[in-house]
């Protein structure tokens, strides 16, 4: 019976969910942090490209470049929305596992063609 009384005094799920929501200012700070991280990654990427003497046009026109851009964008958006409490854990897990499956599928496809 004491277990039932404990459950009766628990916070209703809707109130617990509302308490877990983050403020708009915190979400804004998370998005700024994600943007700064992406900018730093791009700066490092182009620095490496310039040092490797690769043709920038070839890099921009390659299919791998567009796949990388898409994956980074989805990862950044998923991370911000998940940390902001806008995505549930199971949805975040599904998105991230889909990305991992896509990337690994691309890698295994390249190995089988060679």
Question: How many strands in all?
Answer: 0
- Let me know the largest β-sheet: none
List unreliable stretches of 5+ residues: none
Bin the helical content: over 70%
Mean pLDDT across residues: 77
Structurally, the number of domains stands at 1
Q: Helix segment count? A: 6
Global outline: flat
Rg calculated over all Cα atoms:
21 Å
One letter per element, helices H and strands E, the order comes to HHHHHH
- In percent terms, what proportion of residues is strand? under 5%
Which structural class do the helices and strands define? mainly alpha
How far from one another are the termini? 66 Å
Topology (SSEs and partners):
Layout: H1 2-8, H2 13-20, H3 24-51, H4 56-61, H5 63-83, H6 89-113
Helix pairs in contact: 3-5, 5-6
Could you explain the architecture of this structure?
There is one protein chain. With 114 residues, this protein is mostly helical. It has one domain (22-113). The protein has six helices and no strands. It has helices at residues 2-8, 13-20, 24-51, 56-61, 63-83, 89-113. Helix 3 (24-51) runs antiparallel to helix 5 (63-83) and helix 5 (63-83) packs antiparallel against helix 6. The protein is flat. It starts with a helix and ends with a helix. The mean pLDDT is 77.
Condensed summary:
The chain has 114 residues and is mostly helical.
């Amino acid at each position: 019976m004491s277990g039932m009384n404990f459950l009766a005094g628990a916070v209703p799920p809707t109130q617990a969910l509302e308490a877990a929501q983050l403020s708009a200012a915190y979400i804004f700070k998370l998005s700024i942090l994600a943007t700064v991280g992406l900018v730093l990654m791009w700066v490092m990427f182009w620095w490496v490209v310039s040092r490797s003497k690769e043709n920038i046009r070839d890099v921009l026109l390659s299919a791998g470049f567009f796949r990388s851009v898409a994956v980074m964008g989805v990862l950044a958006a998923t991370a911000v929305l998940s940390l902001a409490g806008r995505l549930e854990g199971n949805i975040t897990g599904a998105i991230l596992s889909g990305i991992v499956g896509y990337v690994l599928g691309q890698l295994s496809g390249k190995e089988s063609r060679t």
